[in-house]
Design a protein that fits this description.
Largest sheet: 6 strands, mixed
Strand order of the largest sheet: 1-2-3-4-5-6
Oligomer: single chain
Distance between the termini: 49 Å
Number of strands: 13
Number of helices: 7
Strand content: 15-25%
Shape: elongated
Order of helices and strands: EEEHEHEHEEEEEHEHHHEE
Length: 249
């Protein structure tokens, strides 16, 4: 299985989203390219699935669904979200354990509420749950840090040979990468909690204290990330957070 990079407007540094064709299944057609056209034609695609419905993963769904007369699948319970994102009404739905061609669905929410991964014979297609370098955006509004960490730990326990991510190169050392991503989140959480205990109250001031680098170019997403961590800490009873001000408990 090889990633087929499709140019997209994405937060990932690569400027591309990986599509995959596995037997008769097309995964994450972010747009239409000549390379993806060839792969679809050569494999006689019958199904279209998404790891999640963020804009940089859905741009080619309508075209390939029509061109291939394919069955379009959506996460059960998220059909309306899928249709809003793609403009396509799904034909069928999946949930944990559903098989679509040679792929088996693994629910992996956190980066997005409808996020799933797909287990294949030679590895897992993981969308935006993992990247070979850097970290994944888990931002308030769409993201849930508690769910994301749980999803990472589920993947770690399954011990796949290879991860095929939504952005960037194939991940040949899944457990090492997953451990790095978990550790990164926990370190960020420690800094957020330390900032609140140190007297930072507003989202802006907590963000300033939680990052040790200039985040002005991505300020909105840094603050949404910190807000997602504050939401987790509030659920766990470690801070009081009302969406505007944080206080230690």
């Amino acid at each position: 299985m090889n990633p087929i990079p499709v140019p997209t407007e994405t937060l990932a540094p690569h400027g591309e989203t990986n599509a995959y064709v596995v037997d008769t299944v097309l995964v994450d057609p972010a747009g239409r390219t000549a390379e993806l056209d060839r792969a679809v034609e050569e494999n006689d695609v019958e199904h279209v699935v998404l790891t999640h419905t963020h804009p940089d993963h859905v741009g080619g769904v309508a075209h390939y669904a029509d061109a291939c007369d394919a069955t379009v699948w959506a996460r059960r319970g998220r059909e309306e979200r899928f249709e809003r994102a793609t403009g396509v009404t799904p034909d069928r739905t999946f949930r944990e354990g559903t098989t679509v061609g040679p792929l088996t669905v693994i629910e992996t929410p956190g980066h997005a509420p409808d996020h799933v991964a797909f287990a294949a014979d030679d590895g897992f297609i993981t969308g935006d749950i993992a990247v070979a370098e850097g970290s994944v955006v888990v931002a308030a509004g769409e993201g849930d840090v508690r769910a994301y960490l749980t999803s990472l730990r589920r993947l770690y326990a399954k011990n796949p040979d290879v991860l095929y991510p939504g952005h960037g190169p194939v991940i040949e050392n899944p457990r090492r990468t997953i451990r790095r991503l978990i550790d990164h989140r926990l370190r960020r959480e420690e800094r957020v909690l330390g900032a609140v205990r140190g007297g930072a109250e507003t989202l802006s001031s907590v963000t300033d204290a939680a990052y040790d680098k200039d985040v002005s170019a991505v300020r909105e997403f840094a603050e949404r990330t910190v807000a997602a961590h504050l939401e987790k800490l509030a659920v766990e009873g470690k801070v009081d957070w009302d969406g505007e001000r944080a206080h230690p408990t």
